[in-house]
Every structure is written in structure tokens, then in C-alpha cells.
């Protein structure tokens, strides 16, 4: 098992899309080394194991960072529309998409 697969609720959807729960701060360089160009975070700033400086860590690792904070108890059509917009805009890039436990992401992906 590679280190990315050890991230909580890791799911390899395709060659260009992987989803998971919250990665540890130390793994973002490895995510980039695996060829990912964009990290999309659907967790809120106060979600389980959230990393306050995640955007900086992702950008410092060489990737783009998109934060769409989706409240677990109240996802909105606007949240989903923004997610779809980002997915379409970045359809030719390798995406690493996560939230706290991969529940928000799974709901949006399916």
C-alpha cells in the first residue's frame, strides 16, 4: 500500500480523480509527487482534523488549492454548483478531492 492509500477513506476513482478524508499536513508533497495538480477541500475550517494552513501547504507543495466549505448538516445547491464548476473547469487536471471523512465528497461525486 502506498502512503496515499493510507489516508482515511481513500478512494481511487480514476486515473485523474482520487478522494479521501482529511490528509495529514505532511503528505501534501507526496500527493504532488504522485502527479496531482489540484487539491479540492470540501471540509469546513472547523471540521474534524482540519488544517488551518492547508491552502499554503498545498500551494507550497506545487499544487492549486480550492476550498469549498460545505457544512455537513446543510449542503446547499450553491455548494454543489461550485463543485461541479470546479470539476468541469479542471477536467484535464489530476484532482485530489477531500473533506474530513470523504462523506461530503462521496455525496457530491455520486
Could you explain how this protein is built, in words?
- By secondary structure, this protein is α/β, with parallel strands linked by helices.
- Helices cover 30% and strands 16% of the residues.
- The chain contains 4 helices and 5 strands.
- The chain has helices at 28-33, 54-60, 77-89, 103-109, and strands at 11-12, 17-20, 38-41, 64-67, 95-98.
- The mean pLDDT is 96.
Please give a handful of descriptors for the protein shown.
single chain; 5-stranded mixed β-sheet; 110 residues; alpha/beta; globular; 5 strands
Please report the number of helical segments.
4
Helix content range of the residues, please?
A: 25-40%
Shape: globular
| Computed Rg | 13 Å
What is the number of E strands? 5
Order of helices and strands: EEHEHEHEH
Class inferred from helices and paired strands: alpha/beta
Question: Biggest sheet, in brief?
Answer: 5 strands, mixed
Report mean pLDDT, rounded to a whole number: 96
**How are the strands of the largest sheet arranged?**
1-2-5-3-4
Q: Uncertain segments of ≥5 residues (pLDDT<50)?
A: none
State the separation between the terminal residues, measured CA to CA. 25 Å
* Beta fraction: 15-25%
Could you provide a short overview of the structure?
It is built from four helices and five strands, in the order ββαβαβαβα. It is of the alpha/beta class and 110 residues long. The termini are far apart.
